[in-house]
Amino acid sequence: MKRTTIIEAITVLFIILFLYTGISKMMEYNLFREQIAASPVLVPIAPLIARWLPIVEFLLVLLLIVPRWRLKGLYTATALMILFTIYIISLMTFNDQLPCSCGGVLAELSWGQHIVFNGVFIVLGITGVILEKKLRRAAVANWNRIGQQPAVGI
Fold first, then answer.
1. For residues 73 and 60, what is the distance between their CA atoms, to the nearest angstrom?
2. Total-model pTM
3. What percentage of the chain carries pLDDT values higher than 70?
């Protein structure tokens, strides 16, 4: 499979994930806000997270859609997935019966299933970053190689 196809597939998966979760949070905003407020880990910053997380998810989708910003989007998506996973693990140390604030179908996953799900996306994100960086290096090398060829006279 071509490198670009893999990068595109990973990007589309992240776009679907963050669009879905962002839309779910906005559609059920009051429930999302209550669930975030119930988190013992997020109590001091719960109002900020409730307000800004869906917006960040939508901005991340934009980063992923625009090819020029895609590498930043992949880094950000991977970092968010790592942060979400750390959050889940810290939640599990307090109480594994707390409700999930992911929204939609993802809220039905157990905390263990969330960790596996996030782990898969972390691996996809790291893979996407590595492949996108290689693709960019190859493009720069090609550009430099083309620029070094002798000019053909007219």
1. 6
2. 0.86
3. 92
Which tokens sit at 49?
């997270």
Residue 154 lies in a domain: no
Q: Is residue 143 included in any domain, yes or no? A: yes
Instruction: Tell whether 153 is covered by a domain.
Output: no
**H helices present in 2-110, as ranges:** 3-27, 29-37, 46-65, 70-94
Residue 21, both tokens: 């979760």
What whole-number distance in Å separates Cα of residue 150 and Cα of residue 27? Answer: 59
Rg, C-alpha atoms of the chain: 19
DSSP assignment of 95-142, as one string?
-TTSPP-S-GGGGGS-HHHHHHHHHHHHHHHHHHHHHHHHHHHHHHHH
| Each residue's pLDDT tens digit, 28-68 | 999 999 988 888 888 889 999 999 999 999 999 999 999 99
Please indicate, yes or no, if residue 66 is contained in any of the structural domains. Answer: yes
Question: What's the CA gap between 121 and 16, in Å, rounded?
Answer: 12
CB 15 within 8 A of CB 78: no
Domain that holds residue 82: 3-148
The predicted pLDDT at position 8 comes to 97
The total domain count for the chain is 1
